[in-house]
Amino acid sequence: MQRLPKIGLPALLLGLVLLIFISKSSINIGYGEAGVLFRTFGGGVVTEEAPLGEGFHIIAPWNKVFVYNVKQQEFFEGNMQVLSSNGLEISLDVSVLYQPEYSRLGLLHKTKGEDYVNTVLIPQIRAVARSVVGRYTPEQLYSTKRDAIQNEIFEETQKNVEEQHIQLNAVLVRDVTLPLAIKEAIERKLRQEQEALEYEFRLEKAKQEAERQRIDAEGKATANRILSASLTDKILQEKGIEATLKLSESPNSKIIVIGSGDNGMPIILGNQ
């Protein structure tokens, strides 16, 4: 009975050592994550092999694993101060969608480290945004060029970070804020331009209507000239006779004097 505690204590210590060894020799990588292995006695950061994927892994207890989120992530850069082409200060709100390049995660860890967003991505976005916005006037930024600015910031930043093992998925310009006086001046100018376009449209419409009326009048005048040229005395007499015959068949009381009108046309005297 006195030996049991002596035997139990080494077993307890052995179990504790095994537990520590197992905890140091295993790692569980979660959903959307990947691990970069650091070999303490074998060359440091592993860059030639694929990252450790999701699930349970056994490693040597003297090695380390650095876990990265490899899903698409977003950071928001609000109230970014930039200058337009004429030196006016503009404020941008920008969202950036990104993720580390999975196949080159070891290189990212070795060259940039876990804080790569702050050391690489954010400075690049700021520098490129200042460069791109500096090519445009406040009027262009406010009205027609926001999509162009967004695309240019994305394309130029993508070129700069793809060799630094970062995958840039999108750059979204959420808002462009101009100084209040500039914004009001631009809005007035846009309203005046719209009113001028509306006035030009009304003038063009009036010109078209006047042209239509002129053409219609010319057509009627031409038709009347042709009709007048075709109405000879004999045709008029024939038409008059036809009309007289039709009137004579009417039941209304009337007196017809043949050959007493102009050019020998009948005169019709009715009861009215």
What does this structure look like?
The structure is a single chain. With 272 residues, this protein is α+β, with helices and mostly antiparallel strands. The protein has four domains: 3-69, no CATH class; 73-178, Band 7 domain (Tetrahydropterin Synthase, Chain A, 2-Layer Sandwich); 187-230; 233-270, no CATH class. The protein is 50% helix and 24% strand. A three-stranded antiparallel β-sheet has the order 3-2-5. Strands 6-7-8 form a three-stranded antiparallel β-sheet. Helix 3 crosses helix 5. The longest helix is centred in the C-terminal third of the chain and has 51 residues, at 180-230. The chain starts with a helix and ends with a strand.
Strand content: 15-25%
CATH topology of the largest domain: Tetrahydropterin Synthase, Chain A
Structural class: alpha+beta
Count of beta strands? 10
The shape is elongated
The CATH H-level homologous superfamily of the largest domain: Band 7 domain
> Main sheet: which strands, in order across?
3-2-5
The sequence of SSEs as H and E is HEEEEEEEHHHHEHHEE
User: What's the architecture of the largest domain, going by CATH?
Assistant: 2-Layer Sandwich
Helicity level? 40-55%
Q: How many domain regions? A: 4
How far apart the termini lie comes to 153 Å
Name of the CATH first level of the largest domain = Alpha Beta
The number of distinct helices, counting runs of at least 4 residues, comes to 7
Rg (CA only): 47 Å
User: Biggest β-sheet, characterized?
Assistant: 3 strands, antiparallel
